[in-house]
Every structure is written in C-alpha cells, then in structure tokens.
What does this fold into?
Amino acid sequence: MNRAWAVIKAHPYISNVLAYTTLFASADLIQQGVLGGKPAAGSASEDSVAIDWCQTARVATVGFCFHANFNYHWLRGLERMLPGGGVKAVAGKVVVDQLVAAPLTISAFYIGLSLLENKDDPLADWRQNFWTSYKTGVVFWSTMQAVNFALVPPVARTVFLGGIALTFTIFLCHLRGQSGHTPE
It folds into this structure.
C-alpha cells in the first residue's frame, strides 16, 4: 500500500486521471450488469446480461476527456481559493462546488454522451435528466464533499472523489437508461 501511495504522490495527475477513467467505465459496467442490462442474445439464462461495450467506451471517454481532468484541476483550484479543513472553509467549498462544478459535470455527462452518440439533439437527455440528477447530486455530493474536504489530504481528493463518483455515475447511467435512452 505504501508503494501505491508513493506512486500517487509522485504522479498525482496521471494517477487521478487513470483512476477516474477506470471508475467511470466500471460504473457503466455495473449499471448495465446489475441494474439495466438486457438479456444476452441466445442466452438460456435470464441471469446472463449483454454488455454494450461501445456504451462503456463512451462513458469512459467522457470520464477521461472531461470529468477526470476537470475534477483534478477544480479541486486544486478550490483548495487554493478556500484553503483549510475548518468548518467555514469546508462549507464554502461545498457550496461553491454545488453551484459551479455540479451543473457543469452533470451537463458534460449527458451532453458529452449524446455528442459521442451523434444524437440529432444532443441536449435531449440533458433536458430530460438534469434537474433530477442535480437535486439528487446536491444531497449526495454535499455530504461526500464535506467528508472529502475535511478528512482527505489534497493529493488524494480526486481519487476519493472518483470512488464516490462511481456510485453517482451508476445512478446517472441508470437514470439515462430508464428515461428511454437509445443510442442512434
């Protein structure tokens, strides 16, 4: 474990981006396999699920191209803007995060996937799911970010955030799937 921590500390950007991308892909796989998968073609078992690997690649791409990079730089900037782990600093970080980063990251998820799918209207999924995602995220992320800002060292915040984002990304993928989403 000490060796892994040494690598993260020595190369925080690369470690954070790779971890975040892997977690986004994992979230989509979990969502497809557990929550929203369709039975595999020709499968005798109802437990066998067909995985849409293209969908997983798109989710990983959005995670890599936007979310991992944005969160790495956002958290560093937020720490410089509001340094410390006291109650006032943590509350300020959580409020700013929910007012600025949350709408951007949720929008990037829905619009980014729609663009990768060449949707005629790349805003359709966003219009349908944004408010539900945002309201749920305010409750979930406010709690998780308070823990992140108060207890996690700055060098590990993006990795921690990625781990927590696994749960929220499963929710986003599931919500998107439940709203009648089909790739074009």
